[in-house]
Design a protein that fits this description.
About 40% of the residues lie in helices and about 20% in strands. Strands 7-6-5-4-3-2-1-8 form an eight-stranded parallel sheet. The protein has one domain: TIM Barrel, CATH 3.20.20. It is of the alpha/beta class and about 220 residues long. Strand 5, helix 6 and strand 6 form a beta-alpha-beta unit.
């Protein structure tokens, strides 16, 4: 099933858009099946699970941390993460930068954008993102790579499109205001139910779990 699902997505996904297979809550065997089909980028959201998989699974896997990250769990994530997509507060950003200083490692990150009406979502408002990017010099061990966001959880396609359009507009404005940010070129939007819509709004990455692996295993 996993191989079939991956092949179907690969056929539809435009070139230049990365597929991150969201493997959280799925066992090693499922990841290895996707790996055997050539999938290399995987997303996890729980630090302990992330660290366990990163240590025990093939070392050429590109691990993306996509969940809420507490500052006391950095040591479980930052040694292994290719990128942290879910920087949602300045406090977390400061803590990641401090860890990078201590361990002499520059951490690639995406800033998580909060849009829409759902108050439960984490992240920066568009204005907060623009203000923060004026101060990137304060974070020498952070490499700002772009933005991550989620559309509102709704069946209303127009509302989803409006959310993605808002994030894309912010992404374009960030790049316009800060051409000095080399490598600020990643827009991670779109999940299992709405990734095809995200493609219409210039995403460079989609995060797909259920449509690859099925429902959570544990």
């Amino acid at each position: 099933m996993i191989a079939f699902n991956l092949e179907s997505i690969y056929k539809e996904l435009p070139s230049g858009v990365k597929l991150v297979a969201v493997s959280k809550f799925h066992p090693f065997e499922a990841i290895l099946e996707a790996y055997s089909e050539g999938q290399r980028a995987f997303g996890e959201s729980r630090p302990q699970e992330f660290a366990s998989k990163a240590v025990q699974l093939p070392q050429d896997i590109e691990w993306h941390f996509i969940g809420h990250l507490q500052t006391n769990k950095l040591k479980l994530v930052l040694p292994y993460a290719s990128i942290v997509e879910s920087i949602d507060t300045e406090h977390l950003l400061e803590a990641v930068n401090a860890w990078g200083l201590k361990n002499d490692k520059v951490i690639p990150v995406l800033l998580e954008v909060h849009i829409g009406a759902e108050e439960t979502k984490q992240g920066f408002t568009p204005s907060e993102v623009l203000e923060l990017l004026k101060r990137t010099g304060e974070f020498p061990f952070i490499r700002f790579r772009g933005l991550m966001g989620m559309a509102s959880h709704t069946d209303n396609e127009q509302a989803i499109r409006e959310d993605f359009a808002c994030i894309k507009s912010l992404f374009d404005e960030c790049r316009r205001q800060h051409p000095e940010l080399e490598g600020f070129d990643q827009l991670s939007i779109g999940m299992s139910d709405d990734w095809r819509i995200a493609v219409d709004y210039g995403c460079t990455e989609v995060r797909i779990g259920t449509a690859i692996f099925g429902n959570r295993q544990y």
